[in-house]
Amino acid sequence: MKLELTLQELNHLYYVVSKGVESHKELAEIASRTTPELEKYFEKELSKSVQLLDKIQTALDNELKVMDDEPEYDSAGFTEDDRIVNGEYRTISNEDADEDAKQRDYSAFNNYADTIKQDEQRYNNKKLFTLNENR
Q: What is residue 128's predicted lDDT score, i.e. its pLDDT?
């Protein structure tokens, strides 16, 4: 039988079973002051709960190991390995960034900005024309 749970569901299950273990411990303590048969029963139930809790803990640990093995991406879409070159964290000085910016071709951006300005001007002209027409 295979049961698929999310990490959050597995964590909730662990919490619930851990509370059950606590309850079984209390019941086993109470039963120890009664008959030996009742004490034996609650000790057996406590043992089952502890085994279940161990299995859930193992499953949680395995899921976390899988998550740790996956690379973590920053907001720019890079991993830590992408940022480290020759054992050092890759950085760029402001001067180098400024020099790089001077060498880049921004014509596509400038063309886009010009079309936005033209559209804005057309909108403003149309708006003015409409106001004048209604007088």
A: 56
